[in-house]
Design brief:
The complex is a heterodimer. The radius of gyration of chain A is 68 Å and the shape is rod-shaped. By secondary structure, chain A is α+β, with helices and mostly antiparallel strands. In chain A, the strands form five sheets. In chain A, strands 21, 22, 23, 24, 25, 26 and 27 form a seven-stranded mixed sheet that branches. Chain A has a five-stranded antiparallel sheet with strand order 2-1-5-4-3, sandwiched between helices. In chain A, a hairpin with a 5-residue loop joins strand 1 and strand 2. Chain A has 23 helices and 27 strands. Helix content of chain A is 44%, strand content 26%. In chain A, helix 19 packs antiparallel against helix 20, helix 19 crosses helix 21 and helix 21 runs parallel beside helix 22. Chain B is an alpha/beta fold. Chain B is 52% helix and 12% strand. Chain B has a five-stranded parallel sheet, sandwiched between helices. Chain B is elongated. Classes of the chains: A alpha+beta, B alpha/beta. At the A-B interface, helix 19, helix 20 and helix 21 of A face helix 1 of B.
């Protein structure tokens, strides 16, 4: 009440009021013209003002900037209207903080009704404001939470519904509507059973009945009709019950499990397939555990290790037991590999000891089962065959390489392009010693290019060899063999042999074999053969002595008779010159005839070098027949000739071929010695087949003894009492030297036939 | 043609044929030359004059030896001189056994040939004479009745009339009459003469006579080979 003196200008009753209310609230008063004329002590304290005047002028400065305009506007309007007002605003208190004030102004009228101003009281409502604000905030949160909940409910992909025990739907969420393709209005009040596939409704009802207070939550899977499709759903139902335990409502949350069902089905099928693959696989497969067990295995595996399925079931099959001690480290390494975090094992080889004790090499590979680190699946491939093949291959390879290196021939293997890819020791040795070009014909060199230096022979030979190699490389021929004379001292003969390399990449094997000895031996043999042929020929003519004598006797007889007849004619002097001239002409002719016989004989008896010339086999036969003319008559043999007029010529040695024909004729004649006269017939014919020319000598004699058939061409084989047994052998040698063939066969009826087949000389005809 | 004897010549070798033909002609013979035995066989006709055959052995188809056999078969009694360039012993023996006159090996001297031919012709002449005689005797035998023929055949065996009568079942007197007729018809004076004629007619060669007198076999038959006759074995 110390302030009473400071507010001396205030009306008297106001003082009283002021005193009364100074503790209750913040009081103010104003004159009729808009100015506050009074603030109680509490106001003064509240705002920390010392002087009434100061507050009177500046009270609005204490207001919160946001509230000033509204405050002033309200005051102004209230003064104009002279009506009470109600106002809330913030005022800066003595501590500098703003506080909420509720200000209530009441117009004051004098007894005459004259407006005297306003009185107002303010209450600090800061606390109230705080509470309100908190309430507001909480309310906002609540609203937000509800919105979220609703959103959760509505935005759920899960289907949510509530329905009454009779099935009537009371709530469905958007997902539910979308799922069934129906509007909420269409669903609400509808029966939930209608949505479940007809065949499963009963089951669903029974399921619902199983939900009790003791088991208020249960899950069911069933099918529904959705948008015309049958789909699988899984529902979790919660039942709400009343106090008596009767169901009031059910809430169900469900989702579509069609995909899962399909996946499950697919998984089931895939598992079945896998099982089938596992069981039926020819590859031995097994499930194993790291501690040595085989949990499961297919038949192939059991066969491999010789255990029965029963034994597998009883756990008798253990991979650690089946592994021989010396192979255990392989398993350990594999397990170690798995321990390092890999989930498969690099395939490795080991051995199994079968139940029967047999050791079988296998290739093991495996992988961990997904989600496990101590078990997995493994395959075990039987390597027995492979090992055996490998061993065989190795053996064959070492055999081959030892064979090749042991060959005395110079062997080189070239690829398709002619590059040398392998050579043997002899090759290198010869290249070094013989040619002095070992580096040029070593591995890597192209043989086709260095061939010129490697083959020391004439240009023509080289060209022939090269083209031969090229033909074999190109696959045109399966073999090329050529003999050549090496320009060395002493003279050496080589045989070059080119064989295709039987592999996909192609190539060829070239071998040069020193055949000097063989060639010499061949030449020597050829000489011997020629000698022998000559001896045979002479012997053959010896057999024909009687016949030859006869051949000579005829002209001699004629000459003698003619001469003597002439003499007699001359004695009688009756002769005419013409007769004598005839006689002399005859004598001369017979002399020549005798000379021809001798000439023919001499050519056969001579020991000349063989000379190849173009011959007609027809002529050959005619000439030969002239030699044996008498022989045939003496032997009472009829000779038939069927000579093909258009026969092509052959290239051959006349004497040798004549010898062959002569020998065949004589043999044929001898074979018919025992025959009755009318059957003694010799048929000589010539024929041609393709590029061959044939001479056929057929007799009607005893034929070849079948047990000697293969021997007749062997040397020193003879069925004749005094035969040397070289005739046919020499014949064959001669014919083979003419690149021909000598064939013998018994006739169907009687006797046998010999065919001499020779290559025709070009296509010309004689 | 003329009165010259004919030499048939068969040789397949033209040279030989011509020259030998010439030689034989120069020797004064008529020559018929053939190149084959078949040709000869086809054309052969015995001339009136004596003839012989000069034959080559080694010929195609029908050879000399076969031709000889054919001639024997055909009872063409032709003396043969063989000529051959190739005279082996078995062939020679066979030819000679077949009644060859000679066997000449080519080449031969004219002398050898002409002599052989002469010999052959002589043989042919003798044979012809024998043939004529035999045909006369045969005519006489043919003139006998069958009874007389029977009597003749028994007489020449040396039977007495009584024996013959007994054999034929008649009386000796009848036989005597038959015998007289036989002697007259056969124009013989003695039994010895009758036997000779019977022999020439070859009556002994007939089976009944042979049976009665086996000893008759020892008599050399005409044309039989006797080594002493020949120069060649």
């Amino acid at each position: 009440m110390r302030s009473q003196s400071e507010n001396g200008e205030m009306v008297g009753y106001m003082d009283c009021m002021s005193e009364l209310t100074s503790y209750a609230s913040l009081l103010w008063g104003s004159g009729p013209y808009h100015f506050c004329t009074f603030f109680n002590r509490r106001w003064m304290r509240f705002v920390g003002q010392r002087s009434m005047r100061e507050l009177h002028v500046n009270w609005h400065r204490e207001l919160h900037p946001d509230d000033i305009s509204q405050c002033l506007r309200t005051h102004q309007r209230a003064f104009i209207q002279r009506r009470g007002f109600y106002l809330e605003y913030r005022v800066c208190d003595s501590s500098g903080g703003y506080r909420w004030i509720r200000d209530e102004g009441t117009p004051v009228f004098a007894a005459d009704g004259c407006f005297t101003g306003f009185t107002g009281s303010c209450i600090d409502i800061t606390r109230q404001k705080e509470v309100e604000s908190e309430l507001e905030r909480r309310k906002g949160e609540l609203i937000h939470s509800e919105q979220r909940y609703r959103a959760v409910m509505e935005d759920q992909t899960d289907l949510i519904c509530r329905f009454l025990p009779d099935g009537t739907l009371t709530f469905v969420n958007d997902a539910y509507c979308r799922y069934f393709g129906l509007a909420r209005s269409e669903l609400m009040g509808e029966s939930v059973w209608r949505l479940i596939s007809a065949d499963q409704r009963q089951e669903a009802r029974e399921f619902l009945a199983s939900i009790t207070t003791d088991h208020p939550v249960a899950t069911i899977e069933h099918q529904v009709e959705s948008n015309g499709q049958r789909r699988w759903q899984q529902w979790t139902h919660r039942g709400f019950f009343d106090a008596t335990g009767q169901p009031i409502e059910y809430q169900a949350i469900g989702h579509d499990i069609t995909d899962r069902k399909n996946r499950e089905q697919a998984l089931h099928e895939s598992e079945g397939k896998f099982r089938a693959i596992f069981d039926l696989n020819v590859v031995p497969l097994a499930y194993w555990t790291a501690d040595g067990k085989i949990i499961d295995a297919n038949d192939a595996y059991l066969r491999l290790v010789d255990y029965s399925r029963e034994e597998l079931r009883r756990g008798k099959v253990r991979w650690d037991d089946m592994t021989p001690a010396e192979d255990k480290h392989w398993d350990e390494e594999a397990l170690h590999e798995l321990e390092t975090g890999r989930d498969y094992v690099t395939p490795f080889e080991k051995r199994y000891r079968r139940k029967d004790g047999g050791i079988v090499p296998v290739l093991i590979g495996g992988a961990l089962l997904p989600g496990f680190r101590d078990r997995g699946v493994a395959f075990a491939i039987d390597l027995s065959d492979q090992k055996r093949l490998q061993a065989e291959l190795m053996e064959e390879k070492s055999l081959n390489s030892s064979i090749i290196s042991s060959l005395s021939g110079h062997v080189a293997v070239i690829d398709r392009a002619g590059r040398i890819i392998a050579v043997n020791d002899s090759w290198i040795e010869f290249a070094a010693k013989g040619v002095g070009a070992e580096d040029k014909v070593d591995i890597g060199a192209n043989y086709l290019e260095v061939c010129a230096e490697a083959l020391r022979c004439g240009e023509a030979t080289r060209t022939e060899a090269l083209s031969g190699i090229r033909v074999v490389l190109a696959g045109g021929r399966s073999q090329f063999v050529m003999q050549y004379q090496c320009e060395s001292t002493p003279m050496q003969w080589f045989e070059v042999r080119v064989e295709p390399l039987r592999r996909l990449e192609g190539g060829a094997v070239i071998s040069h074999i020193d055949v000097t000895n063989r060639v010499r031996a061949e030449l020597e043999a050829e000489n011997h053969r020629r000698e022998l042929a000559h001896v045979t020929r002479v012997t053959l003519l010896g057999e024909l002595t009687a016949s030859i004598a006869h051949e000579l006797n005829q002209p001699l007889t004629a000459m003698l008779s003619n001469a003597q007849a002439g003499q007699r004619l001359l004695k009688t002097k009756k002769s005419s010159r013409a007769v004598v001239r005839d006689i002399l002409a005859d004598i001369a002719a017979d002399g020549r005839r005798a000379g021809e016989v001798i000439h023919r004989l001499r050519s056969l008896l001579e020991k000349g070098e063989p000379q190849k010339q173009r011959l007609s086999v027809n002529t050959l036969i005619e000439q030969t027949l002239r030699l044996v003319h008498s022989e045939m008559i003496i032997r009472r043999i009829t000779v038939e000739k069927h000579l093909y007029a258009m026969i092509p010529a052959v290239l051959g040695d006349r004497v040798q071929l004549q010898q062959v024909v002569l020998n065949l004729i004589v043999n044929a004649a001898e074979a018919m010695t025992e025959c009755p006269l009318p059957e003694r017939k010799l048929v000589l014919s010539t024929f041609t087949t393709g590029s061959k020319v044939g001479i056929r000598v057929r007799d009607f004699g005893t034929g070849l003894d079948p047990k000697h058939r293969d021997q007749i061409f062997e040397p020193f084989f003879s069925t004749k009492e005094h035969g040397m047994g070289v005739g046919l052998w020499i014949n064959r040698a001669i014919i083979e030297a003419h690149a021909g063939e000598l064939l013998a066969a018994n006739n169907d009826d009687k006797g046998c036939t010999f065919d001499v087949v020779l290559p025709a000389h070009q296509e010309e005809r004689l | 043609m003329n009165d010259l004897p004919t030499v048939f010549l068969v040789d397949d070798d033209v040279s030989v044929l011509r020259s030998v033909e010439r030689l034989l002609r120069s020797g004064g013979y008529n020559v018929c030359a053939y190149r084959s035995a078949r040709g000869f066989l086809a054309e052969f006709q015995r001339p009136e004059q004596p003839c012989c055959l000069v034959l080559d052995i080694a010929m195609p188809k029908l050879g000399g030896i076969e031709l000889q056999d054919r001639l024997v078969e055909k009872k063409l009694d032709l003396p043969i001189v063989f000529i051959t360039g190739h005279g082996d012993v078995p062939t020679t023996v066979r030819a000679m056994k077949g009644g060859a006159v000679d066997f000449l090996t080519k080449p031969f001297e004219e002398r050898e040939l002409l002599q052989a031919v002469r010999q052959a012709l002589y043989k042919d002449r003798v044979k012809s004479r024998e043939r004529v005689e035999r045909s006369q005797i045969m005519a006489q035998v043919d003139s006998l009745t069958s009874r007389e023929n029977q009597v003749l055949r028994l007489v020449v065996t040396g039977m007495l009339n009584k024996q013959i009568a007994a054999t034929l079942g008649t009386c000796e007197k009848t036989i005597k009459v038959h015998r007289g007729r036989v002697m007259r018809k056969m124009n013989v004076q003695s039994v010895a003469e009758l036997v000779r004629k019977a022999e020439k007619a070859g009556l002994f060669a007939s089976p009944p006579a042979a049976e009665v007198h086996p000893g008759a076999r020892s008599t050399p038959r005409p044309g039989a080979y006797t080594p002493t006759q020949q120069g060649h074995p």
